[in-house]
Specification:
2 helices
């Protein structure tokens, strides 16, 4: 099953959050089977459900380990909406 996920990350830190946001996005982009598209407000993932969910589990853990005072807002769509958002 293919899905799409829209992610917004809001670190509640005053300093050092830019690097963590960039690192989070770069780690998402490292998965070759997931299409990652970024804009000024959010990052969209498109691809296989199980691959994306495993990737998100690992990377959200990393974010909360490095910046525990962060908010992640995720919106899931039950099909691949690449190019339609």
């Amino acid at each position: 099953m293919e899905i799409s996920v829209d992610i917004s990350m809001y670190p509640l830190a005053i300093e050092g959050y830019e690097e963590e946001i960039s690192a989070f996005i770069e780690r998402l982009k490292a998965e070759p089977s997931v299409k990652v598209m970024c804009n000024e407000l959010s990052t969209q993932l498109h691809g296989d459900y199980k691959t994306i969910m495993g990737l998100l589990e690992e990377e959200m853990f990393s974010v909360f380990t490095n910046l525990p005072h962060s908010v992640l807002v995720l919106k899931f769509i039950g099909n691949n909406r690449e190019g339609i958002f």
